[in-house]
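Narrative of activities, Objective 1.

The group set out to show that a structural description can be obtained from nothing but a protein's sequence at a throughput compatible with the screening campaign. Below is one input-output pair from the validation batch, recorded exactly as produced.
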Amino acid sequence: MLQKIITRAVVILAFFLAFFHLYAGGIQIFPSMQQRGVHLGFALALIFLLYPFIKKADTETLAKRGKIAWTSDILLAGTSIFLGVYIYIYFIDLSMAFSSPTITMLVVGVLSIILTLEAARRIIGWALPILASLFLVYAFFGEKLPLLFAHSGYSLQRIITQVGLSNEGVFGIPLGVSATYVVLFVLFGSFLEKSGAGKFFIDLAFSLVGRFRGGAAKVSIVSSALFGSISGSQVGNVATTGILTIPLMKRGGYKAKYAGAVESVASTGGMLLPPVMGAVAFLMADFLQVEYIQVALAALIPALLYFIAIFIMVDLRAARMGESNQENHYKVPNLKEMIVTKGHLILPLVVLVFLLIGPQMPPPEAAFWGIVSVPLVCLLRKETRMSFSDMKEAIVQGMKLSLVVAAACACAGIVIGVINMTGMGLRFSGILIELSGGHLFLLLLLTMIASIIMGMGLPPVASYIILAVLAAPAITQLGVPSMAAHMFIFYYGVLSGITPPVAIAAYAASGIAKTNPMSTSITAVRLAAVAFIVPFMFVYGPALIFQGTVVTILLASVTALIGIYALAVSLEGYLKQPVLLISRFILFIGAVLLINVGVIFDIVGFAIIVATIFYELKVRKFVSVQNLGVKEM
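Output recorded for this entry:
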């Protein structure tokens, strides 16, 4: 009986939250504190009802927890709703909290911090809540720390009011982006997936690349790119497309760990591809105070380079395996027939992109009309029409998927609040610059390592928020454009999804592939090794993020393509035949030269690459494989 009541309560809360945000996005916007308060309060309530105190194997089912567990969860959910309602009603009074907070206000501030930490622990894991807790301790005991990190220290009341009640802490810009943009775009993705567009993307990938060499792996790359561009989670992308593509790759002759690696790398890359970019596009636009379209354009070429690099690696691997095609492993859908029967399902995505780019409609409003267009477009053919049950499931699923981002943004807001209060961001940037000795390349290496470590186990939104405050300022101080600096830390924060030891995307893929998670992660890093170089390319050549003339942008794109091709051949060790070890090293050097900006570097790098490839393809015809040092993954 209690189980049914809780299930209905979850549906009711999800519907309320969805319609609240749809109303705010498409009809009448609310004051920021009101919208953030309701968003957080009801999102926390859903988390406490859906996720048990102690995680089970499947946390997203309403498993039987016992009366005591259910009672505590219901109590926490009720408290969260009270928090949201209180902030909605008294949002004006809370603006005065700094000067004269009441006891009730302080209690609400404490509740917002504690409930956020506990909800984040349940849905994300321990990493971010522990980090946020350490920052709170740092704010209180800062004067007792070593001189490098010391500050004057703050009273408990000041910490509660700034972190728990103001728009510089829990209710700051990160939560604002979640409440304004993310929830609507996640809901749009949920509607699109429920309409059958997710399956259409996979079928479209089959029909486009399925019949070519290494077709199964290429299908994984294309479908994950298409679906990942509108989803907000690497793991969600793996679960949606990987369940079909990973078994297909295994049947096609790929090892289980390689199949899992391809899917995890492709799904991770989906977070880098516009229009949604794991919801970071809108957050980055807010941080940099630029139009959304500028962020989307800046991300486009690096994201395409990422996928082209993986595509080349997979193609070379298929060639080395002696595989001409995979037509015998699956039936390739007929492209014309598929477009006629289901091609209209892509129209909502076209509508969304048009509204964002054409009239440059505010993103929340564009998302609102994108959501509305999904069921309307589905009416065009009888077999794709969405029933009320389908729309209900899309709403509930969309709200569930948005909970991760809401909790992550609120918890990251605690970190940002303390950083702003103590000035730690400037100290951290100073440390990075000092360690690098003012050399940009060393600073980029240090920032890359910091970004990967800080991003481990966190959603892209949460990792970007923290890195944007801690790491990006250091890069900009050495003259790198702000857009390039923020793209750099975002890129590596996302790539932490395949980087050991956490590697959440690779671990999710390994579960489907039924292979060792660590082996899958290591293989994924080797497969994506070319992609790890791309951020250095657009820092040294900002033309890759559309900063420059048309000629410089085209030239930078061409040299980058040549560079990643050479890197792919160098790392895979194959080019119609196994490549000599010394040739692989020379190709790597040539590719690195193309990373740097300058005519001389480009000419020398291009000459080295062309000469080496000519030697391998024309001069060297018969070489014993035993002398090559080529290793299988």
